[in-house]
Amino acid sequence: MVSFWLVVLTASSWAGIVHAQCFAQNPPDRPQASPTIYKDCFEVIRNMVGHDKTLAPTLFSRKPGLGFKLPHVWVYRSCLLRLDMHSDDDEDSVPFFKIAVEAGIINAACVVHPPHLGGTLPVGPLQVMNISLYGLKRRGILSHPINSKALPFEVA
User: Fold this and answer.
1) Which strands, in side-by-side order, build the sheet including 68-69?
2) Which of 14, 61, 86, 107 has the highest count of CB atoms within 10 angstroms of its CB?
3) Tens of each residue's pLDDT in the chain, 156 residues
4) Is there a cis peptide before residue 57, judged by omega within 30 degrees of 0?
5) Can you list the pairs that 13-16 forms with residues at least 24 positions away whose Cβ atoms lie under 8 Å?
6) What is the DSSP string of 120-144?
7) What DSSP letter does each residue of 11-67 carry, written as one string?
8) pTM of the model
9) How far does CA 91 lie from the centroid of its chain?
């Protein structure tokens, strides 16, 4: 399964099908974003798809009782993966597998290359959902690269 993932991610990245928006470091006088490493982000992506519903279309929403509840985060060592909708009224249906491919594109484009801060990408057929990879300073402490604000959730 791992070799299959690498082929899909490499082909998608080389073909230029999707371009991730990579995070940039803040000026020195502002709070600094934390870098992460490819291996940790690869593991967090694997953890996201480590269930039997990986290939089935899943409904994602912020609405209570409607599909997979967002926002949702997965954490592995120095990497945090966040999946969220653009607004409370949005919903979209996509298999976790396709989300993992998009996360792999972010990992290849924005974590492998300096400054290793991660990035974000819209996902799903309606493009109303975002997936982001971030670096953690240390377990439970997140530096948010966009405007250097904390995310609206706690990292366990």
Assistant:
1) 68-69, 57-61, 91-95
2) 107
3) 433 344 344 444 444 455 889 998 888 888 888 899 999 999 999 999 988 888 999 999 999 988 999 999 999 999 999 999 999 999 999 999 999 999 999 999 999 988 999 999 999 999 999 999 999 876 555 544 443 333 433 333
4) no
5) 13/105, 13/108, 13/109
6) EEEESTT--EEEEEEEEEETTEE--
7) HHHHHT----EE--PPPTTSPPPPP--HHHHHHHHHHHT-STTSSSEEEEESSTTSS
8) 0.78
9) 18
Cα–Cα nearest to 63, from 96, 85, 81? 85
Q: Among 131, 114, 108, 143, which Cα is nearest to 60's? A: 131
Contact (Cβ atoms closer than 8 angstroms) between residue 123 and residue 102: yes
Structure tokens at 148: 């250097």
Instruction: Count the alpha carbons within 13 Å of 100 in the hemisphere toward its beta carbon.
Output: 22
Q: Tokens in use for 79?
A: 């990497």
Write out the two tokens for 106: 């972010």
